[in-house]
Amino acid sequence: MAAWSVRDMPDQRGRNAVVTGANSGLGYVTARELARRGARVVLACRSEARGRDAVERLRTEVPQAEVELGSLDLGDLASVRAFAAWLPYERLDLLVNNAGVMAMPYGVTADGFETQFGVNHLGHFALTGLVLPRLLAAGDRTPGPRVVTVSSMAHLLGTVDLGDLNSGRSYRRWVAYGRSKTANLLFTHELARRLAAAGADVVAAAAHPGYASTNLQTAGPRAEGRRTAERMMALGNRVLAQPAEAGALPALYAATAPGVRPDSFTGPSLAMWRGAPAPSWRAPWTRDDRVAARLWTASEELTGVSYDDLKV
Questions:
Q1: Is 307 a catalytic residue?
Q2: I want to staple 107 with a disulfide (CB 3.0 to 4.6 A). Which of 40, 91, 115, 134 is the partner?
Q3: 168: three-class secondary structure by DSSP
């Protein structure tokens, strides 16, 4: 894969897109660049105030942008359902499952799920299932519709524990984060399989940003008042991380580049850390058919969202 940048993005005019967590960081850059190329973009944000600020900033940077704000709290399934019902597009060409939390102190979502598993995986699982009919309706367009789910190098910390998905027996923040990122890849793997079995013209792919400087790293320590850890994370962002503009490139590649394959995993080219988008190595457990199918079944039961169009 030759070095790829936003200059290589194809024209996105006529495409409808949703980007979760688009008020800052990787999500904001992703939404902005899609809009710059002509896509109509919904910035799906939990905070209405930060979302409004992001929309105003984006319209300043890209005056011709067709963007609007959607209210979405991935930690509340009622909010996910309300967002999907509100979504103004009959056809959806692109869903970028970007939002997430990282290494947070133990907590639960509005529905009682461990926060990282509930937000990073279950919220996006439910959202994708609820908007799937709109993605399928866009299948006659070129390029075809795509679902891009943002995972992380931290998936290497471990596979999901099917007997303790909500970390009820023990909780280690980084292990729980890694498992939620593995869940993202297992979800992509099983979604790609089911789409292929149904003959659907929708590509499910995954991406990761490497080490990108966003507010994700400092949110956990800040929530607990761990000032030293917060300062260390901020220092790492300044010294070691690549900027959000570079970290967003793998997701933008997976979302727009020609020939992206189902169940592919795109990340930075240099040791999965930084650089132009390239095929990324992933742990073998993220392609375990049995575990992926069992996680899918559990996710349907936990969220109450059934992918009726992809019954296999």
A1: no
A2: 115
A3: coil
